[in-house]
Amino acid sequence: MSQKKVATVLASMLLLSMPLVGCNSQGTAPAQNNQSSGGNTASSGSSSGGGGEKILIATQSPLSGSQSAIGDAIKTGAGFAIEKRKEEFKQLGFDLQLFPQDDQADPKIGVSNAEMLVANPDVLGVVGHFNTGVAIPSSVKYESGSLVMVSPANSGVTLTEEGKKTVHRICARDDAQGPKGAKYAKEKLGVKSVFLIHDKTAYGQGLVDQVKAQFEKDGIQVLGYEGVNQGEKDYNFVVNTAVASKPDMIYFGGIYPEAGIIIKQAREKGYTGMFMGGDGIDSPDLIKIAGAAAEGVYLTALAGDAKQSEEGRKWAEEYEKAMGKKPGTYSDYAYESANVILDGLAAAIEENGGKKPTREQVLEKVHNTKEYQGKFVKVTFDAKGDNQYADVFMYKFEKEGTAFIEKIQ
Asked: What is 116-142 written as a DSSP string?
């Protein structure tokens, strides 16, 4: 064969092969953590069945910075669920993987991560966030890409009031947490006056506003309502005012790094009254920051104590063995959130004839979750994405950590 004919044949073969590039609707090479894959932002449908196709379940939580303790617990809880079900999805023909993202408790980074997740067609679900102020703007991106989100921890009311079908949470909202905490303070602790402090975030201020409304409704005297900035190391300017007003209780709406400083400084100034906060202060790191001053602090939590039952204790042992660390705050609810997504994913695969489903198909199955019975929570989503079975619990800090008191009725 002449060189001219060889060249012609090779050119023809090249032209025939070109349309095959990008025919797989799963997109290009997989993304690495916190990097965009460059894939299109459309739903991740597939024209072929399993065969080891990758499916990524992402987490979004703070993995660095002052809130990383809870952020890591969320990531690891979801990771435990995925590890336990990898073989199940392997049998279906899929390679199930955790895809953790560090939102750094920063709305801008959360949104940037969300854009990357939407652009990666292998991502079919998100467990997160921890901060409502990060979840709300990030959810705009999830909605644009039909990417389902199930949160173990976001309690801010606004999150599910904006009409986004992709947004779900298995925990209670602040309009349940706040009033129940305030009622408990009055009825069980005998509180008659309170000083309110919040961290100016969507979560912290939103929670305190709910608490304030209930206290005022119940005739509790509100002696002050002040905001502080996250990340500062000294809150004496507001602590002095709070202590001088001599309230029965100082209530803080925010996260544990700021709460620890405020509690410690108030005790140093001789305050002997009670402290209470929401689920944002639920971390062993509060004790590291406040020291002995943390003892006796009350907090409302959105997850019960996993170790209250034999089944829960067995799960915690399994978790530590598999993940190399003890379960942390929201590990159990992140585990349940991931399983709600995985149940929806499995149902969507079955309905799609064993092929990789679209995001819309996964979203539809998750959104229609009814009577899911996990180890720690029961889940039925209403039209807004809120869990009809969500509860609120009361805990108290002791020397070694938090002690479970009861479910608040």
From this structure: HHHH-TTEEEEEE-S-HHHHHHHHHHH
